[in-house]
Specification:
about 80 residues, alpha+beta, 5 strands
Length: about 80
């Protein structure tokens, strides 16, 4: 089953995240199926390819709660 979730990058105490599509059984920093966005929690910078996001949703990928909250926050 595919999930749309965050993949941690960056260094300790300055983490940044990529928004990726991954198998739900893979590790947090494992190899993603697709890379669809970027999130920096320190600056609240969120970049997401909405076309790819909707494409993966239509194919059955489920976003995590954190991703749903980020999308809602961006839409405001």
């Amino acid at each position: 089953m595919l999930k749309i979730r965050l993949k941690k990058i960056g260094r300790k105490k300055l983490a940044q995240y990529r928004i990726v599509v991954m198998e739900n059984t893979s590790r947090r920093d494992g190899k993603p199926v697709a890379d669809i966005g970027f999130f920096n929690p320190h600056t609240d910078n969120l970049l997401i390819n909405k076309f790819d996001f909707l494409k993966w949703i239509k194919q059955g990928a489920e976003p995590t709660e954190r991703i749903i909250n980020l999308i809602k926050k961006e839409m405001k």
